[in-house]
């Protein structure tokens, strides 16, 4: 079984977004929906779904051109065409009869080897296929995506008792490798994993909020990032999901689960949905309401549950949160769990509910503890799942608190109490849902989460490590805040090169497992040196930075960069100089230095000029025909253009056509390792280019003319003009030259360094850096 073509039936919000993700992965897909009786366009709903996905924010498509891979159709004229699909997924109305009727039709036309799936969030899979043939039932497996499918990593794969294990394995591998999903194998029970536990947590938080006398905004402060959870926390998440969805899911789960699983809704929540019809973002009002002030600026109003009126409560602060928010996650969790007052009472109630329920669900919703943890992490944006959080607090401490509240321990916690274990996860060991020790298994097919014991860390610095990946490949891994580039990070790259040569390794991977690849240079350090007039030291630092970034290309062994998330400024420059790049599909890459009054100083300006020039025909690489390449680099860097995906990064020239894009970020380090091993045999060290064509004064004159027009028109500020002139001088190859010349890479690097230092010495740049550090926003001076 191999999935090369797909069909999605149902072009609503979820169906169209799933089709978009298939297109992002390069899979041709048919998108079908019903025919509207009064509309002459029989494919109207499917076409509307594609247009909705194209307009979605955040964007559903990684590159809008991928929409061409979606073929709209309808269920009356085109259902037979799904015979070519290797995977058929339904995302229609959540009614059992409608799904059964659809599967009856699909069974008659789908190919006999096609995998069949439902995206239902609550209707049991085994009920949908009653009455279907045995072969159809063997090929049926639930595939529950989370919205938006591009960004939420979780995919619950739900076999029925009839599903062929080979189908589960094939589909799980496809979902993880091709679609980039984090796969959790869920049991076919009400709510599956994430919604069963996540919605329970939301409902219980509402109940505890009412008992503690807190407001939704206060609860969101207590249950958001400070607890290692998403910014949307509890009630903002509810608004985003749709209060009607939570209402229906809670009611359905309340009917389908035992009495001790309390899914009862508060009176205020029922009023919101039943009486007010305030359903969250979809209606513009929920627990929060967006409005605009007299200046047209967006303002968020908070709902007062006592008066059912919206109020401007300003920035809500909670003392318990303010006291710990700067501490590491483990310290924050421990402090909040033991906090005093109504905030502490609320948090203990909510957290204990979550711990008790997750333990009760072990073996029910899924057969592995890590699947439950991953479902909450990947589906709801938590940093730690419930079992990982109990490990942070100490399992015996949690058990004692639950018993003090008079709770009956679920079998898993009873077994943990009897064994005296303090952790569910210890090294390579975890426990079964019955509490018996078992070997920890990484998530299905994922080659990540390096188990770095002492023997694998070859060299360690405060903000970086060199790790042995096995098979003769080393990894340079940065692990500083936002992976800002300072001395530790640069020296670790040098360490890696030296170790490869001294110890006979095949090559080097540059990657890490942080939140972002690198957000760029260490601005506080640069600013403090400039303000202290340490110009010789700064000049040496920039020279060293250039030497280290370019060393990724000009080393005697292959280097592969594995960027993901933010790869900005210096992070982009390291990526640009690697022999090969294995990029996460979700890559936000850009040379953004102009935002702080600088230009790229680590070879980024040079590299983009070189790349764009090389894309011209040789006959165009001379005279005025060279200008488009110069202008293209000038616009990219001068506007701080940042890609919104790896596909766009390729279109912008940050990635080459030969570079690799991996849909699943968890795979990029191991894929980078494979690329090093592929490059290593017969690898020949490149030499710096000496033949880069530049235009000199002619390019500078053209750029100045455009700049003055933009300045006069009010499109750029006075200081934008200063920065842009320095950028133009580098891209021109220097001034004082009235003819096309050819220069070396080093010549352009020297110009970069000179421009960087010149700008850093100016008051306008120092003001921009200071403003960025204080506010996180660029200054338009």
TrEMBL record:
Which one of the record's GO molecular function terms can you name? (3S)-3-hydroxyacyl-CoA dehydrogenase (NAD+) activity
Stored Gene3D superfamilies: 1.10.1040.50, 2-enoyl-CoA Hydratase, Chain A, domain 1, NAD(P)-binding Rossmann-like Domain
Gene Ontology BP terms? fatty acid beta-oxidation
Task: Return the EC number.
Answer: 1.1.1.35
Q: Which reaction does it catalyse?
A: a (3S)-3-hydroxyacyl-CoA + NAD(+) = a 3-oxoacyl-CoA + NADH + H(+)
Q: Which UniProt keywords apply?
A: Fatty acid metabolism, Lipid degradation, Lipid metabolism, NAD, Oxidoreductase
Q: Where is the 3-hydroxyacyl-CoA dehydrogenase NAD binding domain?
A: 6-188
Pathway connected to this protein: Lipid metabolism; fatty acid beta-oxidation
Indicate yes or no for the key word Oxidoreductase: yes
- What residue stretches are annotated with the 3-hydroxyacyl-CoA dehydrogenase C-terminal domain? 191-289
InterPro entries hit by this protein: 3-OHacyl-CoA_DH_NAD-bd, 3HC_DH_C, 6-PGluconate_DH-like_C_sf, ClpP/crotonase-like_dom_sf, Enoyl-CoA_hydra/iso, NAD(P)-bd_dom_sf
**CDD domains in UniProt:** crotonase-like
What is this protein's name? 3-hydroxyacyl-CoA dehydrogenase
Tell me which species this is from: Deinococcus humi
